[in-house]
Design goal:
The structure holds two protein chains of two kinds.
Chain A lengths: L1 E13 L6 E13 L3 E5 L6 H8 L7 E6 L2 E2 L5 H11 E4 L11 H11 L4 H14 L15 H13 L5 E5 L7 H16 L3 E6 L2 H4 L4 E6 L2 E7 L5 H17 L4
Parallel strand pairs in A: 3-8, 3-9, 6-7, 7-8
Antiparallel strand pairs in A: 1-2, 1-4, 4-5, 9-10
Helix pairs in contact in A: 3-5, 5-6
Chain B lengths: L1 H14 L1 H25 L2 H4 L4 H33 L1 H9 L4 H42 L11 H28 L2 H6 L12 H20 L3 H36 L1 H4 L2 H52 L4 E6 L4 H19 L2 E8 L14 E9 L2 H10 L16 E5 L2 H54 L3 H40 L4 H35 L2
Antiparallel strand pairs in B: 1-3, 1-4, 2-3
Helix pairs in contact in B: 1-6, 2-4, 2-6, 2-7, 2-15, 4-7, 4-15, 6-7, 6-15, 9-10, 10-12, 10-16, 12-15, 12-16, 12-17, 13-14, 15-17, 16-17
Classes of the chains: A alpha/beta, B mainly alpha.
């Protein structure tokens, strides 16, 4: 079943003093099926952050359509967009974006609180997720008391707690050491096996090799894509490297 | 290098103008006010006015209070400013500036900022002194004439005070620069503030101080003692306020947090957790705002009451328009009848009428002459304007040519009209009002500045938090609501507490005013009026600064 459809999306930024138009996205079209694990790769300036912001309803496309579960994201008001973001999407950011003033537990519960869930429902949802992400012992601690990997797992728990249709991850391993990064990617694979759709933007080959499909963006268009199929992670890693080399050296598709 | 340091200092000031401009503006205002106060204290023209001496004494006392306040307040605010800039200094160090260079930059910054505020302050002080002089004369009831003058000695004393302040500030800034480690400088604002501990002892202490302060204020019966004890009570209340705000607010917030049903709702969740973590540095500021507000309210209420109650006071002290004193009279009724006739004659000539004539126990004026005679007063009330009464008083003849009256039984009669005494009382009370407004304006400026800095520093701290919350799925509207809960709680707590303080202080204020023969009704009405007007101004300030806060939080 198709969960997300990105149809001929175009984004042009106008610099503040007029004149220069910068084309961040030229023409992006792709779809994501329910239960997929898609990585989007591209160098800095390729437009991947712009794409993610548009998917997250933090930004509007200049042209084109984005449909999530049959809902046109371009047609939601700011207020509804916030609610939509909270209930349909889960976010994992590079710099964790946890609130220092809230304990780990309260950080995870934040979206539920904003949506006005009752107490017992909150606790019922919290327990299994904290267990799955191995942070049950940390719930009463504060973000400045735990490690980077633990922070990112807290952020994943926060993204999962609303049972979102889609998890959007922006360079989730960017601020982690290699060990913590591996652990986090294992967590992602595991929740994907549980049926969770994940869309991850990254420029780490390691991270992308965990995905089931990799999209390559260059100069604002989808340049290439790879399906993992039955390949092992090592084979996938090699294939991604090849594509990246081809892109970098300007080789043919 | 020297040139570079100077340039950097000037640049820093203009770059940090959101935090420096209000500080400098407050300093300008305080320099100007202080200069003017000294200008009036040293003004010889005032001395020639009726009651001018007591006015100058009042103002001299006021300038002392103001000097102490200005020093402590500006010193404190400067500390807040430097804290905001810690990170900036850390960055300079990282970029390769040595402590020596940084020291020079800070030195020039402090020099430039202080020199500008002082110069602008003195100039505007001189410009406004004429106007202020006019206002003072008007309040004193004299016909106003614009007297433009520059008092060199006032400039000197102002320079002395602010020069001393400058040295203190400079010394502290440099010391702070030296003490802080580079790593701390860079992290200064990013360290996660830990959740503060509950300090039950401090709450008990705070309540204890408040109870003592309130107790003194409420239980004192002796009117003269209340004047002194009022200050003792004030000290207790100030200490109690600080302790309660620091510790009590934390306990209060933790209580909300412990109530899970309430805490886990959109309204409280973000606001309470944010407040709790910031309360440690917040509480002192809030208590400061509360104390300042109380000071404004007390000062303005009392001086306004004194001003509006002065006619009543004059009536009490001088119950009649003309008093004729009779010495050793054996037949007072008969003498009074004669004086009444004379008064009616005089009134007729002036074109007004005598309202009432009565015999009253003696007032001390003549007894003091040491004659040992028994005296009695005839009080004459007239209807008419002050000027007509004055004329009538001059017309009234009760003495024979040689000054000794031997009509009927009395040996000696003299008349006295209270106009002059009233003048002197009006002058003194007018001086009170003037000083009250003066100090009120200064305290107000201080309060506004504190509120402004609170909003700004909190805006910068909250910015990151609200960005995160928006990403996670909070709408602009929800963000605003949460900010409002937080800010309302923070802002109206000091105002509410100040209102309670003033309610308790009201008894003392009534007592003190009764020394000045001012009725309690006037004091209560004036206090209510002052509280209302102050609340309006406070809300206006809150609105204006809240806008600044939103702008910081919402900036893309």
């Amino acid at each position: 079943m198709e969960i997300l459809k990105v149809d001929q999306v175009k984004k042009i930024y106008t610099t503040r003093f007029g004149g220069n138009n910068v084309q961040a996205l030229r023409d992006i079209t792709f779809t994501v099926e329910s239960g997929e694990y898609v990585a989007i790769m591209g160098e800095s300036g390729s437009g991947k952050t712009t794409l993610l912001n548009i998917l997250a309803t933090l930004d509007q496309p200049t042209k084109g359509k984005i449909v999530l579960e049959g809902k046109d994201l371009g047609r939601i008001s700011e207020k509804k967009a916030a609610k939509f973001r909270r209930e349909q999407l889960g976010f994992v950011f590079q710099e964790f974006n946890l609130l220092d003033t809230l304990s780990v537990k309260d950080n995870i519960l934040l979206p539920l609180v904003l949506s006005g869930y009752p107490q017992n429902e909150m606790m019922a949802r919290l327990k299994p997720i904290a267990g799955r992400l191995h942070i049950s012992e940390l719930l009463e601690k504060y973000p400045y008391e735990i490690s980077g990997g633990q922070k990112q797992r807290t952020a994943v728990a926060r993204a999962l707690i609303m049972n979102p249709k889609l998890i959007l991850a922006d360079e989730p391993t960017g601020a982690l050491d290699s060990h913590a990064a591996m652990q986090l990617l294992d967590v992602f694979s595991e929740i994907n096996r549980g049926g969770q759709t994940i869309l991850m933007v990254t420029h780490s080959t390691e991270a992308a090799s965990h995905a089931k499909r990799v999209l390559f963006i260059k100069d604002g268009i989808v340049y290439h894509q790879l399906y993992r199929g039955e390949r092992s992670r090592e084979e996938m890693y090699q294939m991604i490297t090849n594509v990246l080399t081809a892109i970098a050296t300007g080789g043919e598709r | 290098m020297k040139e570079l340091c100077k340039k950097l200092a000037a640049q820093n000031l203009s770059k940090n103008r959101t935090i420096y401009l209000p500080y400098m503006m407050a300093q300008v205002l305080m320099v100007a006010l202080f200069y003017n106060l000294l200008f009036l204290v040293g003004n010889k023209n005032i001395l020639t006015l009726p009651g001018g001496e007591s006015v100058q004494q009042t103002l001299a006392y006021g300038s002392l209070v103001m000097g102490v306040f200005v020093m402590t307040f500006l010193f404190y605010v400067n500390g807040v400013l430097m804290k905001q800039r810690k990170k900036e200094f850390g960055l300079y160090r990282v970029l390769g500036m040595e402590y020596q260079h940084l020291k020079k930059v800070v030195f020039y910054e402090t020099c430039i900022a202080n020199a500008i505020s002082f110069a602008v302050g003195i100039v505007s002080g001189i410009v406004f002194s004429g106007l202020l002089y006019m206002i003072l004369l008007k309040i004193l009831g004299e016909r106003a004439a614009l007297a433009f003058g520059i008092s060199i000695s006032a400039i000197w004393y102002t320079l002395l005070l602010f020069g001393f302040l400058f040295v203190l500030v400079l010394f502290r800034n440099l010391r702070q620069l030296k003490r802080v480690k580079l790593r701390e400088m860079l992290q200064a604002k990013e360290q996660g503030e830990q959740e503060p501990k509950t300090k039950k002892g401090l709450v008990v202490f705070g309540i204890f101080c408040l109870v003592i302060g309130y107790g003194i204020a409420l239980l004192v019966q002796n009117i003269i003692a209340s004047l002194f004890l009022f200050f003792v009570a004030a000290v207790f209340v100030i200490i109690g306020t600080y302790a309660l705000f620091t510790a009590g607010s934390i306990i209060f917030l933790k209580k909300i947090k412990a109530d899970k049903e309430r805490y886990y709702t959109p309204r409280f969740f973000v606001a309470v957790s944010g407040l709790l973590h910031r309360m440690k540095q917040n509480a002192a500021g809030l208590a400061g705002i509360c104390v300042l507000s109380t000071m404004i309210l007390v000062t303005c209420s009392v001086s306004v009451s004194v001003y509006f109650g002065q006619e009543h006071a004059i009536r009490t002290m001088f119950p009649a328009d003309i008093v004729v004193t009779m010495v050793d009279t054996t037949n007072p009724e008969q003498d009074m009848e004669y004086i009444k006739n004379q008064a009616e004659l005089a009134a007729q000539q002036t074109g007004i009428s005598v309202r009432d004539v009565k015999l009253a126990a003696s007032d001390s004026q003549l007894e003091n002459a040491g004659s040992g005679y028994e005296t009695q007063n005839v009080q004459i009330s007239l209807s008419g304007s002050e000027k007509e009464k004055n004329e009538c008083s001059k017309e009234l003849e009760v003495n024979t040519d040689d000054g000794v009256y031997t009509y009927q039984s009395a040996h000696f009669v003299c008349k006295q009209s209270p106009q002059e005494g009233a003048e002197s009382i009006r002058a003194t009370y007018g001086g009170f009002l003037f000083l009250g407004i003066f100090l009120g304006v200064m305290f107000m400026a201080a309060t506004v500045l504190m509120i402004y800095y609170k909003q700004i520093s909190e805006g910068y701290e909250d910015r990151q938090r609200y960005i995160i919350m928006k990403k996670v799925g909070m709408s602009d509207e929800e963000v605003r609501e949460s900010i409002q809960t937080q800010v309302l709680l923070v802002f109206f707590l000091p105002l509410g507490m100040a209102a309670v303080h003033i309610l308790i202080a009201l008894k003392n204020m009534v007592q003190i005013c009764s020394i000045l023969s001012i009725g309690w009704g006037t004091v209560i009405l004036c206090t209510i009026g002052t509280v209302l007007i102050f609340s309006l101004i406070y809300m206006g300030v809150y609105r204006k600064t809240a806008k600044v806060y939103y702008a910081i939080v919402d900036r893309q």
